[in-house]
Amino acid sequence: MSVITASEALIVIDVQNDFCPGGALAVAGGDEIVAPINALMERFDTVVLTQDWHPADHSSFAANHPGAQAFSEIDMAYGRQTLWPVHCVQGTEGAAFHPGLQTDPAHLVIRKGFRRQIDSYSAFFENDRQTPTGLEGYLRGRGVTSVTLVGLATDYCVAFSALDARARGFGVTLLPDLCRAIDLGGSLLRQRQAMTAAGVVFG
């Protein structure tokens, strides 16, 4: 299998136990993408993993808002926010990468969502759209000009990462076969349309 050019990076989004079957916020078929992602890593000189890493009192958890239901929405200082079941709490088994995922090939692990008052879907910015994760600077420093995205979930963390990468001038390829979606209220179609309009290529 040929190696992709050094100017391209693979970003593996949130392949963690809580997003896989049996997890607190399981995405159907989330574990099915692990083996092919492992194989894909071998083709890239730059591999980045992202990891949801929430404190237990995170503001995006419905349990931390008395009377609120999971998957409802509330207004936060930075805009509308979906409230989620408690998931990917720092140091828990749910926050760990899926045991089948090869982590040794990763050159960088970006942890996100660790600030209590701000959720973070994107690998590049938190949900206030202003607080950077540092990923852009890392990629620029390695001479990366385009990224390939895989992981969980297509319509949330993968899509937000793809849109932010395009907004920052990176070429973006998303591999739908190596992603799985939540599809909450038609979110998958909406995000696919937004990504298409932004110039994301679906491989």
UniProtKB/TrEMBL annotation:
InterPro entries per record: Isochorismatase-like_dom, Isochorismatase-like_sf, Isochorismatase_Nicotinamidase
EC category name: hydrolase
Pathway in which this enzyme or protein is active: Cofactor biosynthesis; nicotinate biosynthesis; nicotinate from nicotinamide: step 1/1
Keyword Transmembrane belongs to the record: no
GO molecular function, one term: nicotinamidase activity
Pfam families: Isochorismatase
Residue span(s) of domain Isochorismatase-like: 9-183
E.C. numbers: 3.5.1.19
Record keyword Ribonucleoprotein present: no
Keywords from the UniProt entry: Hydrolase, Metal-binding, Pyridine nucleotide biosynthesis
Any GO BP: pyridine nucleotide biosynthetic process
Top-rank lineage group of the source organism: Bacteria
UniProt cross-references to NCBIfam families, sorted A to Z: PRK11609.1
PANTHER family (alphabetical): LD05707P, PYRAZINAMIDASE/NICOTINAMIDASE
Family: Belongs to the isochorismatase family.
Official protein name in the record: Nicotinamidase
Species in which this protein is naturally found: Stagnihabitans tardus
